[in-house]
Amino acid sequence: MPPVVSVCIAHFNSIDLIDACIESVRRQDCDFEVEIIVHDDASTDGSAHHLRTTHPDVHLIASTENVGFCVANNRMADAARGEFLLLLNNDAALHVDALVSLRAEAERLSRPAVLTLPQFDAETGDLLDIGLQLDPFLNPVPNRDRLRNEVGTVHGACLWIPKALWYELGGFPEWFGSFAEDLYLCCRTRLAGHPVRALGVSGYRHYVGRSFGGGKAHAGQLATTVRRRALSERNKTFVMAIIYPAPVIYLIMPVHLMLLLFEGLLLAALLCQPALPSQIYLPVFGSLWDRRKLLCKERHIAVRERRATLRAFFSVFDPLPHKLRLLLRHGLPTLRK
After folding, report:
1. pLDDT at position 268, please?
2. Where does the Glycosyltransferase 2-like domain start and stop, copy by copy (predicted)?
3. Which stretch of DSSP H or E encloses residue 241?
4. 5-206 is a CATH 3.90.550.10 domain
């Protein structure tokens, strides 16, 4: 009998965290079969051998080369036997009632939907978000209202989706590499008229920022890496180019690109890091040009499959730019190499 859900764990060089992640799945208080799949992305810390010897029941996909988060999850989805997929980060651990809560919501909705659970900081236990709203420039805005279940996007660290919907939307775009692939999938989901929901119950613990650095404030100070920021700005712009319906795209995209240039110049001056524009912001323009044919093709598909009205699609958006809110609250970020 096939499993109800396939838990797909993308893994790279976190041998100290993977056991807790897998054990959190094994400890689930549910009466249905669960499949665990781990994609080891050519780890150099002995993870593949550790997984084979310590977790022989886990379906291990051991890659011979580092292919990134998108390819890893697409491979696991292809191998999965479950009706549903749960994408789970290797630095995350589920609460014991996580899977039963997600399945109950999926059955209650009786329609394809992307779901997630409340995210808690693994180090402090603090609630980080219950899904995410979006600002006009696709920056994620943490939602902490347990009664606000309709959200703009959810973290790929804990993302539940019917396998049929995954294939309907084409999975993750492998040319993204890593970062904002969850934003892309959720925006495509909502554009196609399917719900993206965050449950107000259960949850998961997450060591945020272990892979790319950043992701949350430490001691009131925002800190991130140049690589994370570069991937974020590039891929969010890709998502905007693909999914923003007309006429909104013609209004937002020029403003977005001008603000990126302004932000790059401002941060370079204030942080005394003159290379920032060429490291983070200018490559966005080159990437848009280089990928223009692919972006047009993906946009054509997304627009053709659009079922949501403009009002419904933008109902989960916060009009205030989130970067401005963060600047006022935390000041300038620090950017590490």
Report:
1. 93
2. 6-154
3. helix 226-243
4. yes
